[in-house]
Design a protein that fits this description.
By secondary structure, the chain is α/β, with parallel strands linked by helices. The protein has 10 helices and 8 strands. Helix 3 packs parallel to helix 4 (129-150). Pfam families: adh_short (PF00106).
Length: 317
């Protein structure tokens, strides 16, 4: 079977959800520095992301599309914008995600004081926002990307995907996709699901030229941790080591451009402090080393059992 053509981000266009901050902002910045246009799809922009938008107004160019990733029409719109502004996108990163905040959290069920999840659902169909953001959004975005590439518009500049015209989808899983955690079980479930989804699409690269892979970062110094006091309880400031978001962005670029077994379609690349490795889908030893552990995780478990010990836990108000 013929091998897919090598891939460079130079001169290409990417769609990155969640690029208003954190890892996805760093990835967008790195792409722009490599002469790749970026459609930033997010609810809003932090100052550093706004600066990026102001800086890259020519070639390469950054464009912002306000996007709520749980809204599938808005996901489709970001592809429409990419086609209008750049003739389509060659790289897609459905990177937006949340780390089980109190408002969509297993230990704050729908209908209780802190939850924003509707206990009655929409037309009787229930939804947890965490799963809509962390797993439904990347799955739907992957479908949309594949559909656009397999059925390009007549004026598309990116053309139909093939082994000689490959495309890329890079996801952000987590070391949470390798291990259990009592304090964040829904987040853990979402990342296990995403890693399984990535691995299941491995054959697309050799047959169609669509590489789907992803990274599994450790404990990352981003707002997902630093702006949530309940998560910072897990951190031992004296001994724990942060993985910087720039390290993850570099690994994501390698997932897009690299060659070899560690980045082929279907692979999940663990990113800890100063090192990466491929995560096996069976008999994997799990994350080990700096950046792979929050040293005070027991405190978050104690907090959970404090909640469970409250009278009327889980009873909707």
């Amino acid at each position: 079977m013929a091998q897919p053509t090598s891939f460079s981000v130079d001169g290409k266009t990417a769609i990155v959800t969640g690029a208003g901050s954190g890892i996805n902002y760093c990835f967008a910045k790195l792409l722009l520095e490599r002469n790749c246009n970026v459609v930033i799809a997010d609810l809003g922009l932090r100052p550093e992301a706004q600066k990026l938008l102001d800086q890259y107004t020519k070639q390469p160019r950054a464009v912002f599309v306000k996007t709520d990733v749980v809204n599938w029409d808005q996901l489709a719109k970001m592809f429409d914008v990419a086609e209008k502004e750049f003739g389509g996108a060659d790289i897609v990163c459905p990177g937006a995600g949340i780390f089980e905040p109190h408002w969509t959290n297993f230990y704050h069920p729908p209908g209780t004081a802190k939850s924003k999840d509707d206990p009655h659902g929409h037309n009787g169909v229930g939804h947890y926002a965490l799963f809509d953001i962390n797993i439904n959004h990347p799955i739907r975005t992957t479908q949309l990307a594949m559909s656009r590439w397999l059925n390009p518009a007549a004026d598309s500049k990116v053309g139909k995907v093939s082994l000689s015209n490959p495309k890329r989808i890079v996801h952000i899983s987590s070391i949470a996709g390798q291990a259990p955690s009592t304090s964040t079980p829904m987040y853990i479930a979402s990342k296990h699901a995403l890693s399984g989804f990535i691995r299941s699409l491995a054959p697309l690269e050799a047959r169609l030229g669509i590489r789907v892979n992803g990274v599994a970062p450790g404990v990352i110094k981003t707002p997902l941790w630093t702006e949530h006091p309940e998560k910072m309880l897990m951190i031992d400031e004296a001994n724990d080591v942060w993985v910087e978001p720039e390290e993850v962005a570099e690994a994501m670029l390698r997932c897009v451009e690299g060659e070899g077994d560690d980045v082929k379609g279907g692979t999940v690349m663990e990113v800890l402090k100063g090192r990466t490795r491929t995560v096996g889908w069976r008999n994997d030893p799990g994350p080990e080393g700096p950046g792979g552990l929050a040293g005070n995780w027991e405190k978050s478990v104690d907090e959970v059992f404090g909640w469970l010990g409250e009278e009327g836990w889980g009873v909707a108000k």
